[in-house]
Amino acid sequence: MLGGFDDLDRTLAVMDELRRRMGVMLDEYDDGPVRGDGSLYGESASWPRVNVLDTGNALVFKADVPGMTEKDVEVSIQNDTLTLRGERRSGNYPDHTLHRQERRAIRFSRSFAIPCPADIDKAQATVRDGVLTITLPKAPEAQPKKIAVLAQ
Question: What is the CATH number of domain 50-91+101-142?
Answer without folding.
Answer: 2.60.40.790
